[in-house]
Amino acid sequence: MYRLFIADDNELARQALKRSVQWAELNCEFCGEASNGTEALAFIAEKKPDIVLMDIKMPGISGMDVIAALREQGVDSLFIMVTAYDDFTFMRQGMQMGVFDYILKPVADNELHTVLRKAVESLAEHEEEKQIAQNYKEKSESYAAQLKEVNEELEEKLFIDAVNGSKDSSERFAKILKAKYRIHDYFLMLVVPEEEREGGQSIDEFIDRQCSIMAECSRIYHAHAKGIWIKEGYLMLLSFARTMFLKEYDLQSLRMAEFICRKNEEASAGVYMTISHVSSSFEELSDLFGQVLFCKNSRFFLENQKIIHYDSLRSRSISGEYLKMRKLEELYAACREHRASVRDCMADFLNQFSVNEIYDIDYVKNILIQAAIMMVYIQREAGAEENDFPDVNDVVKELSEMHSLQNAFQWMQDFADRVEMSGDIRRKISQQTKKILDYSNFPHRLVC
């Protein structure tokens, strides 16, 4: 039902108008009346009726002034002027304010009915147009949201493929980011949970918190950021809005890392960060990814620092530690690829601990424990049987109980022998035997 309001200083005129309207037939209902402009202005501004029959000449504020004031307030009621004056000046003024129509007094019933019917039809058409516009807006927003989601999924896939070495994905990813942010120089940053506790934060909680912190950090430091979750942690590609000198990039990246660490600590969730070198070529994205992983795997060499910048690992002050880290990475690579070089890689790694240097035995044992644990995990991921290698807890126990570095080094060399021998045995198994073993280990399903 459309609500209709009458404003006229003549009581008889108002009563006549109310009696003349065929309310039900026109789908209208009477909602109020006023005898002067002041009352009309207050009522219409508050109630916002659909249709107003407004007398032009009223005591106090005129009908025209009432309409002008209401239009300034944004009231879009449909106004029909009722007047005894056939004056073009009034009509032109009303047209400028969007008055719908005019009725001359004395008002004829059929003329009033015709004008009101036209007004109702106009309102119905307007509502239909508004509904169409609203539907279009909702569909457009839905399509835009879907498109954004698809684009974000595509960017995440390209990001993951690019850091894993796909040249085509790197080129496509670079094209997208350069179009969106005009990215030139960039670096990678990896945020890693300090520890995973049972009943603690979930991955979703961790990701949501990093997204929120990253958005705040980007605003403060005027940086563009793209983040994804990978098994190693939350990986971010960051680029600043302006080009800077290399030293400025390093300082700003460290400031951002400190900000992210502090925000996580405020949420009682400790993290540590690794930062890559700055590059302008997306072809180096995979190399930069290797740098942040290298920093992550080397953290225990640096007494568990909270923030590790790849460039700092190559500085002269810790050049010896850097070589140890590199040799350890080569050992891990040999374990993963089951090459016949695990023994040699282990020997090269242990040789980095020069007999002429003095080491804290607990510090070295901690490094060896971390290395052995990683080797166990690599073998398990490669499908080795649990009985082939000691349990992680046994590794920690056995190495922790070593009373000399010589014994600890010998334990590590023996462990490397077992790893390499395991690889040799698997290579010597015939293809037919491998198929039998693979079949026997495959989880069968009953076919109904």
Describe the structure.
This protein has 16 helices and ten strands. It is α/β, with parallel strands linked by helices and 448 residues long. The strands form two sheets. Strands 2-1-3-4-5 form a five-stranded parallel β-sheet. Strands 7-8-6-9-10 form a five-stranded mixed β-sheet, with helices on both faces. It is rod-shaped, with a radius of gyration of 39 Å. It starts with a strand and ends in a 7-residue tail after the last helix.
Principal-axis shape equals rod-shaped
What's the story with the biggest beta sheet?
Answer: 5 strands, parallel
The ordered string of helix (H) and strand (E) elements is EHEHEHEHEHHEHEEHEHEHHHHHHH
Strand order of the largest sheet: 2-1-3-4-5
Low-pLDDT regions: 425-448
Number of discrete helical segments? 16
Structural class designation: alpha/beta
Considering DSSP H and I runs of 4 or more, what fraction of the residues is helical?
55-70%
Proportion of residues in extended strands: 5-15%
Rounded to the nearest angstrom, the radius of gyration is: 39 Å
Secondary-structure map:
Layout: E1 2-7, H1 11-20, E2 28-34, H2 37-47, E3 51-55, H3 63-72, E4 78-83, H4 88-96, E5 101-104, H5 109-163, H6 167-181, E6 187-193, H7 203-221, E7 223-230, E8 233-240, H8 246-266, E9 271-275, H9 285-297, E10 307-309, H10 310-313, H11 319-337, H12 342-351, H13 361-381, H14 392-400, H15 405-428, H16 431-441
Helix pairs in contact: 2-3, 5-6, 7-8, 11-12, 11-13, 12-15, 13-14, 13-15
